[in-house]
Amino acid sequence: MAAAVLLLGAPPARADEPAPPPMTDGFGLTQVGAPAGTATNFVITVKTAQVAGEHRIRILLPGDYAAQPAKRYPVFYFLHGASDDPGNPGLAYPALTAATSMITVIPDGGRRGWYTNWLDQNTAAGAQNWENFHINQVMPFIDANLRTLATRQGRAVGGLSMGGFGALHYAQRYPGLFSQVATFSGANELSRNHAVIRAAVVATLTNIGAPLCGSSSPACSLNFGPTVSSDAVFGTPYPVFDADWRWNQADPVAHMDVLARAGTGVAIYTGDGNGEAANPEFWVQSAAQHAKERLDALGHPYHYVNYRGGSGWGSQCNGGHTWGCWAQDLVDYVPRLEAAFAAAT
To answer: Could you give the C-alpha distances from 303 to 95, 152, 252, in angstroms and in order?
Structure first.
């Protein structure tokens, strides 16, 4: 297993390796220290008033970025899962580092930030305005510092597990920003009809029970940070007199019509956890199926893959909620995304 982790990591910088491009502070972001990594796979650390603490952003540049100073590139914002961090080299999946015509940006989403501005900003976790951080700060910071195609057609968002929810959430909240969206084993459904995923979200907040862990390492840390209330992000999750209305409002399945009206390209990937209810992927599959059914009802095209138990889906996929399956998801998706970018830009 350790050898597999090394395959997912970034190569160490050599003494003669070109430095990462300079990045200038702005949009409420202040850099801490120097970038770490190589010229095409590096991490910057920033501070912002929007989210407590320091936060890493991993940036993957195509190999010809430095040699083509007049060229601009589309950007794929790749959102990680619960318990993960862009400092984890495993998030630099081989399919992403091998991309030849796009930039990939992997911003910190917190161990359980859930890609939204929390309802309660007065918890032990401190300020938790993740949506403001990503949309109003990280995106313009990237456009100002890198040679991006800063248009809807030149921008996509995708994510795994918690990040799959975040990708759909951002694409639905900001349809004018993203032309493509992808969810890999995503927490695609938060309505009261999917109590298991809702409970898994609560578990990441309260540090109790079996959370929806989305680490790109073989093992998942079950420490999600300071324990906060189950109400902290979307208000109460309990369906009493419609008190859980914010959860239903945030449910991505309920807003697939936004993607259809905007003509957004949609990709959905899932396994089935080998039919085992104790495997998070078993529940993720039903959420993916519900998203698919909603798109079918709308008549909106999409790319849907259910690799079930993982047989034939890469050498490391067992059909579970694991990095080995997501690595193969990206092998399938990245060429499709680069082709879509090329056709549109």
So the answer is: 18, 20, 17
